[in-house]
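FORM 7B: Structural annotation worksheet

SECTION A. Query
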Amino acid sequence: MTWAEARKVTAAILEGMTMVRGLGHTLNAAGRTVTRMPRFMLHTLIWLLSRTAGVRDLGEFGPSEPRAMIDAMTLAAPGQTQQLLAIRP
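SECTION B. Predicted structure
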């Protein structure tokens, strides 16, 4: 993952969490922590994690699961998922 891709993923993650809260759900402690992190730290964390074997191995499952998740989120909150759609595989 490039630094630019990490920035896009960061924007999509934050948009998704905002959407979840907007639908009346609460975020767990980890989600709340992520939303409070400075963006630069979150970009760096995502970029670093993308270099770990565990995260890279997840990509071997293919694009079906993230595509389905983004599609479901788009159906739940039309017009509120532009960043998520920008990273949809």
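SECTION C. Observations
The chain has six helices and no strands. The helical segments are 3-22, 29-36, 39-49, 53-58, 64-76, 82-87.

SECTION D. Sign-off
Analyst initials: ____
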